Amino acid sequence: MLNELEGIQLGPIFLSFQILSIALSVVVAYFTFAYCVKRDFPQIKSEILDKFQTSLVIFLITYKITPLFFEPSLIFSPSKLLIYSGGPFAFQISALVSLSYILYHHISNKWSLKIVDHFAVASFAYFIVSNLVLKTYGSASFYEFGWIHNDIVFHPLNLYYVILFSLFLCSSIILLKQQKNGVLAILLLLSFFFIEAILAPFTV
Amino acid sequence: MILRRMIILINIIVISTFVWMGQKQHILVGEGDSPTLPLVGYQAPDFSLETFDGEVLSFYDDLLGEPVFINFWASWCPPCRAEMPAMVDVAHLYENEINFIGINVATQDGKNQAVQFIEEYQVPYPNLIDENATVSRNYQVPPIPTTIVIDQEGTVVFRKVGGMTKSEMIAAVKEGLEGKE
Q1: The Cα angle at residue B84 between residues B80 and B85, in degrees rounded to 5
Q2: CA angle in degrees (0–180, nearest 5) for B26-B30-B32
């Protein structure tokens, strides 16, 4: 597993493992979503996937230009805009904008709630892959297993997440096969908060 | 039916295990100190380096007890140059509330260029020379600029790789002043 602070130096560009893990997880989540959509909605699959691809691009662009919202004067120094990205609330703002776009199309095209279920499954796939790729240190552990740094054993938090996300995802899919559309998404959302609560003692 | 029961049983076992481990963890947290790791939420590693004026500054001896804003930089790096005017402004703005420290990653820089950089931007805070990049390695800073904010307890509360805008720096300073929640 990779350390989030390390990366690959490609000439002047430093590609951190964190970015690589996010990219890989997004790709896996997208293909998971695409597979489910193609299986259940073959007639409108390209329309749905197009909108999701666009929302991803909207997310990236919004994230990149967020510094401009807080410091409009940056518009006069475009070279600095190339350097800056993110910042306070950047993730939240970008997620809000891109989810609003998807929500608008979901409502206006009267898409089935099953798509929300597929989106929830894809989100869990994202969490599983990102935690599988990237090492996350938890609090100091009294067990002998875990991530070791300077002779201190830390809880392997990412592995805990992988176990719980995988377990809850598989359980929900198998147990909720015959349920109404949207129930899976609600259960996975609740599972997410439940997992966070269970693992809270191991975080710093 | 058997599969469903098996799944429910596995869920119960796994959740119970994590809850039990969590209970035991609570006991340990009460006993031990926070471990050292250059990541948000952990105790910041110690360092002792010489400034460009020849004065030695040690994190645990001289800086611990007050919030610290550390910026790793090199004179040739474009994002370091881009963010420096804003950093100087923010350093002036919060000079009585937080200690600003610059750490020049000297293995990637020349001393003359670094001095020129400090003079060019009139950097008001102490800048340390990381001659052998030991502090950079301890703080796991391969890319520059990297900014780390540490609260008065010595806990890392903010970490960012790459250039920062003024509003981002102010938000980071505020995190340092508020400390670990």
Answers
A1: 150
A2: 110
Do B45 and B139 touch, CB atoms closer than 8 A? yes
Complex ipTM value: 0.83
Give the closest of A84, A137, A163 to B165, CB-based.
Answer: A84
DSSP chain A: -EETT-EEEETTEEEEHHHHHHHHHHHHHHHHHHHHHHHH-TTTHHHHHHHHHHHHHHHHHHHHHHHHHH-GGGGG-HHHHHH----TTHHHHHHHHHHHHHHHHHHHTT--THHHHHHHHHHHHHHHHHHHHEE-EEEE-SSS-SEEETTEEEEEHHHHHHHHHHHHHHHHHHHTTTSPTTHHHHHHHHHHHHHHHHHGGG--
Domain borders along chain B are 1-32, 48-178
Tokens in use for B134?
Answer: 């030991």
User: Residue ranges of the domains in chain A?
Assistant: 1-41+112-204, 44-110
- Tell me the chain B residues in contact with residue A170 when contact means C-beta distances shorter than 8 Å: 7
Q: Is the pLDDT of residue B108 over 90?
A: no
Q: What is the CATH number of domain B48-178?
A: 3.40.30.10
Q: What pLDDT does residue A82 have?
A: 83
Mean pLDDT of A94-120: 94
Min Cα distance A46 → chain B (Å) is: 35
The answer to whether the Cβ–Cβ distance between A140 and B164 falls below 8 Å is no
